[in-house]
Each structure stands twice: as C-alpha cells, then as structure tokens.
Amino acid sequence: xxxxxxxxxxxxxxxxxxxxxxxxxxxxxxxxxxxxxxxxxxxxxxxxxxxxxxxxxxxxxxxxxxxxxxxxxxxxxxxxxxxxxxxxxxxxxxxxxxxxxxxxxxxxxxxxxxxxxxxxxxxxxxxxxxxxxxxxxxxxxxxxxxxxxxxxxxxxxxxxxxxxxxxxxxxxxxxxxxxxxxxxxxxxxxxxxxxxxxxxxxxxxxxxxxxxxxxxxxxxxxxxxxxxxxxxxxxxxxxxxxxxxxxxxxxxxxxxxxxxxxxxxxxxxxxxxxxxxxxxxxxxxxxxxxxxxxxxxxxxxxxxxxxxxxxxxxxxxxxxxxxxxxxxxxxxxxxxxxxx
Amino acid sequence: xxxxxxxxxxxxxxxxxxxxxxxxxxxxxxxxxxxxxxxxxxxxxxxxxxxxxxxxxxxxxxxxxxxxxxxxxxxxxxxxxxxxxxxxxxxxxxxxxxxxxxxxxxxxxxxxxxxxxxxxxxxxxxxxxxxxxxxxxxxxxxxxxxxxxxxxxxxxxxxxxxxxxxxxxxxxxxxxxxxxxxxxxxxxxxxxxxxxxxxxxxxxxxxxxxxxxxxxxxxxxxxxxxxxxxxxxxxxxxxxxxxxxxxxxxxxxxxxxxxxxxxxxxxx
Lengths: 340, 268
Description:
By secondary structure, chain A is mainly alpha-helical. Chain A is 72% helix and 0% strand. Chain A has helices at 2-5, 8-27, 31-40, 46-71, 79-96, 105-131, 135-155, 189-206, 208-218, 220-225, 230-257, 268-279, 285-306, 313-326, 328-334. In chain A, helix 4 packs parallel to helix 8 (189-206) and helix 6 packs antiparallel against helix 11 (230-257). The radius of gyration of chain A is 20 Å and the shape is globular. Chain A starts with a helix and ends in a 6-residue tail after the last helix. Chain B is mainly alpha-helical. Chain B is globular and about 60 Å long. In chain B, 79% of the residues lie in helices and 1% in strands. Classes of the chains: A mainly alpha, B mainly alpha. The interface between A and B is large, with 48 and 43 residues. Chain B: Its main location: membrane. Chain B: This is ABC transporter permease. Chain B: One of its GO terms (molecular function) is transmembrane transporter activity. Chain B: One of its GO terms (cellular component) is plasma membrane. Chain B: It is found in: Cell membrane.
C-alpha cells in the first residue's frame, strides 16, 4: 500500500488536484458544485463514461507515439500535423474510393494513411542525420505545413455542401468501427489502442530490439561502443512515432467522427506529448495517463455544464500538471526510481 | 512600410528568444507570451480606457509571469522545453477563461475607440534591437555574464555571482519582447482575436536557429521570412488557394534551415 503512494503518477495526480481545486475556487461562482461535477460527472452514467473512454483512444496512441520518440531521445513536436494527416488521408480516400468497395479497400486506406504519416517523421529524422536540422524544429515545421495542406483538401475539393461546420461528407457506413458500449460512442478503436500499447510495451521490455532501442535512446555513446547502430534506432523511433500519430488520426475518423472536420486534431499532439511525459518510463503507464487526461477533459466539460467555469479549465490544469511532471526536484524528493 | 510591419513582431520575438538562448535555455513559450501581450494590452486598454496604462500594465504582468516561469523552472529543476510547452498551454487556457469571465466571449475583443495607434515607434524599436543586443552582449557586464551563464554555470558560481538571476532575467526579457510584439499586433488590429499570433512565436524560434543564434543572422532570417510572408500575401491576391499559401512560409523556413545547415557542414 505504501508503495502505491510512492508511485510517481499518484504523487503527480495529488499535486495536480490541489491547484485545480484552487482554480475552480477562483473561476467558479459555486466552487463546491463545480468541483463535485468535475470529479463525479464523467462516471455518472454509461453514456458519459463511454465517451470519456472513446476520447482516450486516440490520445493513447498519440501518447504512445510521443513516448517512443522520447525513448529514442528525440522530441516529436509535430504530432498535430501527423494526426491530421492520418485522419485526412483516411477520410479523403474513403470518400474517393467509395465506388470500389472491396475486401482490401479499408486495409489499403489505413496502410496508406499510416505510411504517409510515418514518412513525415522519417523525413525529420533523415534531415537531422543528414543535414543536422534539429528534429524538434523540423517536425514542427512539417506539421504546420501539412496542417495547411490538409485544410486545403478538407475545405476545398472534399467539403460537404450545406453543412454548418467545415467538414467532409461522412465515410461509408461499412467502414465504421463497431460500437462496444451502447448508448455511448465508445468504439472498438479503444480496444485497438489498448492492444497496441500492450504490444509495444511487451516489445520494448522483452525483445533484443526493444532493449537496444532503449539503450541507444539512453546513452548513444555507450550504445555505439557496444556495437549497436544507434542512428537506425533514432530514425526508427521518430518514424514509429509518426505512424502511431497517424493511427490516432485513423481511429478519430473511423471510430469517433466518421468524417474529417477541420481541426480534427484538436490538440491531440500536444496532449499526447504531455501525457507521455506523465507516463514516465513505462509504456504501460501511457494507458493510465491518457485515461486521466480524458477524465480531466470530461470533468471540465461537466463543470462547464453545471456552473460558469469555462472548458479551458482542463487546459490550465494540464499546464500545472506539466510543470509538476517535469520537475526533477519532486523526482529527487519522492521517487527512488525516477520518472524518465 | 508594409514590409517593416510584417517584420517587426518576428524581429522582436526572435531577438527576445536569443537572450534565453545565450543563457543556455530555450524559451518555447514565445507564442504564448505574444498572445498574452496582445490580450492583456487590449483587455486593460478596454477596461481602463487608457492606452498607456494598457501598455504599462500588460508589460508589468508579463514581467511577473516571465519571472515565475523562469524561476520555477530553475527551482523545480524542470526541463525548460516542457515547462515552456506548459506555459504555452496555460496561457491559452487562462486567456480563454479570463476573456469569458470579463467579456462573456471567447472570440474577438474589439477596442471601440476608432483612434489609430501609432506603431512607428515599435517598428523603430524592433529595428534598433538587434544592434542594441550586439552592444549589450559585447560591452556590458550584464551581457557578458549572461553569455557566460550559457557557457558554464560553474564560472559564475566560482566568481560568486548568482547564476539563476541571469537565466531568470533572460526568460523575462524574452517574455517582454514577445509581449511587445503581441502589443504591436494588438495595436495593428485594434482588437484581440484568438490565435492572434498565428504561429509567429514558433517561427521566431525557428528564425533563431536559422540565424545561427546571433543578432545579425536573426535580422537576415527575419528579412528572409518577411519576404516570403509578403510573397504569400501577394499570392493570395492571385488565384492560388490560400491554405497552400499559408503553408509556404513554413516550407521556405525548412528549406532555408536545410541550406544553411548544408553550408555549415562544408565549413566543418
């Protein structure tokens, strides 16, 4: 029991709840009600609980993507663009190939989407190695470029006429991921994300490849001296990161929205990054941190409904969380094993 | 004149960011500070009705925020990039929450007075700042020590100088310059719109790297970037889709980064 309270994630959660309670106190005219709604709202019925899990699915994948990039010792700040790219390609191809529905159409679409988002980060990794362009910057620049290009496709050739939001038309019904918890929107995407996290977690833990990957991320010089080609692992880390972000976009379209809306990425990239940092050193913790994040979002929207708190509450809380996560002081004080 | 107006915010923000680079960290939150500057300026001017008070209070608040950002990052021994992202996120959240609390809107905040603001002084300031920075870094005690802070912390400790002071000050300076850039944007539009900085903060970060972290290089980088920006504005009047034009500055920046890196490689 004592060991549980020593766990970094638990400490971080406690350290975050106090400032957020303070925030609600300042922002809300009825703090007690707001806070109660914030904490209990998401669990109050099946519908909202399912929706919370459904929103956690793409976030889980983006956190996993950010996690892999961090593990290979590079930052991927282009998550937004990669998610959007995966989503846009899925949506647009689904609509474009609407007349040629076969057994292989959907797998083909998904593979193309994942491939392109992987290529995007691969370019960044390649630029870093070949031209020494910092991947932190190139991922961001490429992502911004891609966001605008995707916007062009969504608001241009594929825009649905007569809709009051900027969106493409719905994809084919047969592509929808099955719902697994009626009446909520929870789709099989959640299970897919869960399985992916578990697979990658096992892979990193129990295979030679995973071990070498971790070592080259931790200490490049040591890895090189052991004969590990650490550059390859670095490229692999960024590429896989991009593929996972793309997968988040695919699930967004197939499981959540069924069409591509402008700005469908909705801060998933940044939130994935912070949730990955919250998860710390073990990929399996990505599941818990993503769930916690979507709980924060769901809670804020509940607090918004019941009182005059704005939806951005969760954003402010997350930023406090960020500070707490990245603090080495807290790590030194409480945690023997370290977060990273 | 149009060109200088395009350039001013980039120049201010990237030179501000240069100070943090000299002190050995990176301020990722330039975007947030810019938006914050614009928001505070418009809000305070609207509430108090006084333009000077708006500028003064906005910069004072940004100084406090910058201090907290820098100081907490050092005291908590946190990763500056992560705290920068946190500050960014927090600022945008706070802006929305406050805008809703004060004006009951999350959208555009208009300054109703129709008087045009004179932005020439800020443009002039932005042009002087690179040269001022060169002077400060070469000939003042503060500048030299700031540089030393980036090179080696131990040197300052052995000389009995507080190293944290210089790093925190650098973050404050960076925040202030970005704040001035934000105020400039607010003055131009005479209103605050969400996403007023439109990626300028991030671009400024890129310009710092593009300019090899020295003021003259940054000046050249800003000129290059403003030219592409102007070209894209020109392209918008032609028949090219606006989204593709909006994407062009980022692509140009990336190409410029690759080209400068290549030339550096040949020199090594």
